[in-house]
Amino acid sequence: MKFRKTLIGLLAGATILTSAGIAQAAEITLKVSHYLPPSHGFQKDFLENWGKELSEKTNGKVEVKVFDATSAFGKIDRQADQVRAGVMDMAVGLNGIPRDRYPAASVIEMPFLVKYADSGSETLWQLYKEGLLGSDYNDFKVLGLFTHEGGLIHTLDTPVRSLEDLKGLRLRTPSPAVSAMLESFGASPVGLPPSAIYENLQKGNIEGLVTTWDLVNAVKANELLKYHTDAAAYTAGFYFVMNQKKYDSLPEDVRAAIDEISGDTLVGKFGDWWNKWEAAGKANAQKHGNEIIEIDDATRAKWQASVQPMIAEYLAGLKDKGVTDPEAIYKRAQELVAEFDAKYHAGDK
């Protein structure tokens, strides 16, 4: 009975993925964790489809078991560590939590650099492929890197229409880079995992947060929020990594299948996924009658100009964290974002 209870506890929050129509039992089970609810797009669109595709390409030899935020393996700050220790075979995590783990990759989070998820994701992935991210992910087999759309400022009682409105506001932040931006605006950043956002909004410990439409919907924060300022002010970086020893131990055909459905192929999907997830979050805010504040080009340009000293200071500080030439990484990121924006969004405003 004790063993049964332990097994049930370990399986709570787990989803096992195999390919439909394949009758044979899987020979290999790969475990992947993430830090969001099982209903989130990270699981429903991304990981579940990735797992089913891997099962199909290996003729049922591999099954993938997904552990979400409701499981014992869903803590946001433990995702990479669980993979490194071999507790999980793979994980999806947020670069900024814990802080300073991936300093070179944090360059993608500089204010007003990324507006679109496809451009941001492909830029971050290209920086990795070009070797510009240094030792950030040396411990892992990197299956993909990606970013979200340009993020918003969501608030309870204070509409943010100008920089002055941000002064003194306690806002949840996802990373050190975004914290630096908020501090430059005069706001007070507060680091919190997604699971703590709703409670801290409800208790008034924070007065808002900077994140996507998607996340405020996922944590049901639209029930409490009243204002959403769409400034596309920042982005956050994410990783999808695998334990290198586990990858190396797999049969050659399984490794080939993983490589085929990861990397360029996977990263190219995040633009459409984020469009879907953001649309759902925005629709939910509108359903609650919340006000959406659009920042015009002139105001956005003013905000962008105001953070240039912060960007220079942040990049200089990365050298103390072992990043050899952060300014060069930032310059290359600017070039790549411009290239991908021209490729995917030439006609967009």
Chain-wise SSE layout:
Layout: H1 2-11, E1 14-17, E2 28-33, H2 41-57, E3 62-67, H3 79-84, E4 90-94, H4 117-129, E5 140-147, E6 152-155, E7 170-173, H5 176-184, E8 188-191, H6 197-203, E9 208-211, H7 213-218, E10 227-230, E11 237-243, H8 244-249, H9 252-261, H10 264-267, H11 270-287, E12 291-294, H12 297-306, H13 308-318, H14 326-345
Parallel strand pairs: 2-3, 2-4, 7-8, 7-9, 10-12
Antiparallel strand pairs: 1-3, 4-11, 5-11, 6-9, 6-10
Helix pairs in contact: 2-9, 4-11, 4-14
Description of the structure:
- The chain has 349 residues and is α/β, with parallel strands linked by helices.
- The chain has two domains: 182 residues, Bacterial extracellular solute-binding protein, family 7 (D-Maltodextrin-Binding Protein, domain 2, 3-Layer(aba) Sandwich), CATH 3.40.190; 140 residues, D-Maltodextrin-Binding Protein, domain 2 (3-Layer(aba) Sandwich), CATH 3.40.190.170.
- Helices cover 42% and strands 17% of the residues.
- The chain has 14 helices and twelve strands.
- The strands form two sheets. It has a six-stranded mixed β-sheet with strand order 1-3-2-4-11-5. A six-stranded mixed β-sheet has the order 8-7-9-6-10-12.
- Strand 7, helix 5 and strand 8 form a beta-alpha-beta unit.
- The longest helix has 20 residues.
- It is globular and about 60 Å long.
- It starts with a helix and ends with a helix.
- The N terminus is likely disordered.
- InterPro entries: DctP_fam, TRAP_DctP_sf.
- Pfam families: DctP.
- Keywords: Signal.
- This is C4-dicarboxylate ABC transporter.
